[in-house]
């Protein structure tokens, strides 16, 4: 029999890390409430994203809160390896300190110019 494939949300909820996140000895009712709270927060964020953002590629039912290097953490503190290799993170990872400093310096001057105009940009060397 082939193994069943879990959605990212199901995998999160069924993982040992999730149970550990709840604390050892968490009662099933507490775990179910935590699952409900997590899903509610995720659904709320995804609803706002759909309402206020440009729709592009479909998203996974998980909300990421931060990243560092090759890792991401969702809004519940669960750690993931970023195999997505997104636009910028594939080369230098998430939140590389030198890149963050350079971006902040640039954003103080000009946040996001159109591609149809020239702008003065500082190159990281």
UniProtKB/TrEMBL annotation:
Q: Which Pfam families match?
A: Aminotran_3
Query: Which pathway does the protein contribute to?
Result: Amino-acid biosynthesis; L-proline biosynthesis; L-glutamate 5-semialdehyde from L-ornithine: step 1/1
The GO terms describing molecular function are: identical protein binding; ornithine aminotransferase activity; pyridoxal phosphate binding
Known catalytic reactions:
a 2-oxocarboxylate + L-ornithine = L-glutamate 5-semialdehyde + an L-alpha-amino acid
List required co-factors.
pyridoxal 5'-phosphate
**UniProt KW keywords:** Aminotransferase, Pyridoxal phosphate, Transferase
GO biological process terms, semicolon-separated? L-proline biosynthetic process
Q: Report the superkingdom from the record.
A: Eukaryota
Q: Could you tell me which InterPro entries the record lists for this protein?
A: Aminotrans_3 (IPR005814), Class-III_PLP-dep_AT (IPR050103), PyrdxlP-dep_Trfase (IPR015424), PyrdxlP-dep_Trfase_small (IPR015422)
- Is Secreted given among the entry's keywords? no
The enzyme's E.C. designation = 2.6.1.13
PANTHER family in the record, alphabetically?
AMINOTRANSFERASE CLASS III, ORNITHINE AMINOTRANSFERASE, MITOCHONDRIAL
Family from the record: Belongs to the class-III pyridoxal-phosphate-dependent aminotransferase family.
Protein name according to UniProt = Ornithine aminotransferase
User: What is the organism of origin for this protein?
Assistant: Phialocephala subalpina
Which lineage do the record's taxonomy fields give for this organism? Eukaryota, Fungi, Dikarya, Ascomycota, Pezizomycotina
């Amino acid at each position: 029999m082939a193994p069943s494939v879990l959605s990212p949300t199901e995998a999160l909820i069924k993982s040992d890390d999730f149970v550990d996140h709840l604390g050892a000895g968490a009662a099933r009712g507490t775990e179910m409430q935590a699952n409900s709270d997590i899903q509610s927060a995720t659904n709320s964020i995804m609803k706002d994203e759909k309402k206020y953002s440009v729709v592009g590629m479909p998203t996974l039912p998980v909300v990421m809160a931060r990243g560092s290097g090759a890792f991401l953490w969702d809004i519940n503190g669960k750690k993931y390896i970023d195999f997505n290799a997104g636009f910028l993170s594939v080369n230098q990872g998430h939140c590389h300190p030198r890149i963050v400093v350079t971006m902040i310096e640039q954003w103080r001057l000009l946040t996001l110019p159109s591609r149809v105009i020239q702008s003065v940009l500082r190159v990281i060397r």
